[in-house]
Amino acid sequence: MKNVLVIGAGLSGVTVARQLAHRGCRVTVIDQKNHVGGHCFDYEDSTGIRVHKFGPHIFHTSNKRVTDWLSRFTEWVDYEHRVVAELKSGEFVPFPPNLNTMKFIHSDDIINTFYRPYSEKMWGVTLEEINPNIFHRVPMRQDFEDRYFPKSSFQKFPKYGYTNLVSEILSHKLITVKLGTPFSKEMMFNYDFTFNSMSIDEFFDYKYGMLPYRSIRFHHKVYQVEKLTIFPVVNYTNNSSFTRRTEWKNFPGHGFNGDLTLVTEEEPCDFRDNDFQRYYPISDPKGENRILYNRYKSEIPSNMVFIGRCGMYVYINMDQAISSALSISQKVLLEWGAV
Ligand SMILES: Cc1cc2nc3c(=O)[nH]c(=O)nc-3n(C[C@H](O)[C@H](O)[C@H](O)COP(=O)(O)OP(=O)(O)OC[C@H]3O[C@@H](n4cnc5c(N)ncnc54)[C@H](O)[C@@H]3O)c2cc1C
């Protein structure tokens, strides 16, 4: 029986933990936060409305292996994500732009109305630096499709929320969870193997430099009306520092309060200006961040593998995090002759 340490109780870590425990390994999961779920953590606010602490998380996938695996731990609520953008005139139009959007905005203005303000706030650099080719192929739909993820065959919310789902995944007699527990190097000596979802540069004490991330400050507001709009997510096209707002009760199964509504606005920033909260790895045009990542990667100890969004320094959706964690745990178990 192997004794395994998993650093991080996000979806990547808990998927690995469950797969290893299922094969008879004794697994300890640590997280520096005081809750499980990592960045998909959600909770019921004092208003009775469910909030995703780190921004709206929409589960969507076409990966049947992932949905079959997750469905062992949760029931689901149907949902199809649609986003609108609020124009300066106050109208709400479908986003990404489709033929209905064109009734309000001329096609020549699409980039400057929608993509420039959003991208520049999001990444803190000009649109041309992010995507020099954007003007050659304007991202807009030539039909009336208004679903945000039309290609994903499975779009649902876990019925009792993401935190409940993650707790169910961790509910196994061979898994021990230690919250409020930051990783320290001595811990590794107590285990045969470590799966690590912390940022790789942090593990190496930043000896070759720091990998950059974008972060987001969340601003919660309560309005004393039943609803501001019927839309769960509204993208802004204005010049404020906010990119979008989420009105939580407009998601199915996220609670009800007839007297008020809870809204969260997002303000992107550098992660160093937000207490080092790492949300989005940055892919720079010259690939220098990937080079730095690979330099660290070449020094990973033989009894450790890095997993997840920060461990692999790549933006991954939840389904990708789970799919990747299933594959990595399978590979390691095979090497151990445990499957
Ligand atoms: C703002 C935002 C919105 C998103 N929206 C969506 C969406 O709509 N749909 C979707 O599919 N995906 C979405 N994602 C992506 C989703 O959050 C990721 O797929 C998911 O977080 C991946 O899980 P993870 O386990 O790899 O990382 P995380 O969830 O980040 O988990 C890593 C865990 O490791 C812990 N940790 C880190 N360092 C240490 C340390 N030194 N010691 C102990 N513990 C440590 C952290 O506290 C954290 O809990 C979004 C992500 C962000 C940031």
Q: Could you characterize the architecture of this molecule?
A:
It contains nine helices and 17 strands. It is of the alpha/beta class. The protein folds into two domains: 3-51 and 161-209 and 281-335, NAD(P)-binding Rossmann-like Domain (Rossmann fold); 83-149 and 214-273, no CATH class. Strands 8-7-13-14-15-12-16 form a seven-stranded mixed β-sheet. The chain has a five-stranded parallel β-sheet with strand order 10-2-1-11-17, covered by helices on one side. It has a three-stranded antiparallel β-sheet with strand order 5-9-6. A hairpin with a 7-residue loop joins strand 13 and strand 14. The longest helix is centred in the last third of the chain and has 18 residues, at 318-335. The radius of gyration is 21 Å and the shape is globular. The mean pLDDT is 95. Flavin-adenine dinucleotide is lined by residues 7-13, 30-33, 38-40, 54-59, 182-183, 197-198, 216, 279, 308-309, 316-319, 321. This is FAD-dependent oxidoreductase.
List keywords for this structure.
binds flavin-adenine dinucleotide, alpha/beta, UDP-GalPyranose_mutase_C, single chain, 7-stranded mixed β-sheet, about 350 residues, FAD-dependent oxidoreductase
What is the strand and helix layout of this fold?
Blueprint: E1 3-7, H1 11-22, E2 26-30, E3 42-44, E4 50-52, E5 60-61, H2 64-70, E6 76-78, E7 83-86, E8 92-95, H3 110-123, H4 127-130, E9 154-158, H5 162-170, E10 175-178, E11 193-196, H6 200-203, E12 213-223, E13 233-236, E14 244-247, E15 261-270, E16 280-281, H7 288-297, E17 304-306, H8 308-311, H9 318-335
Parallel strand pairs: 1-2, 1-11, 2-10, 7-13, 11-17
Antiparallel strand pairs: 3-4, 5-9, 6-9, 7-8, 12-15, 12-16, 13-14, 14-15
The site of flavin-adenine dinucleotide has 33 residues, from helix 1, helix 8 and helix 9.
Organism: Lacimonas salitolerans
Domain UDP-galactopyranose mutase C-terminal: 114-315
Protein name: FAD-dependent oxidoreductase
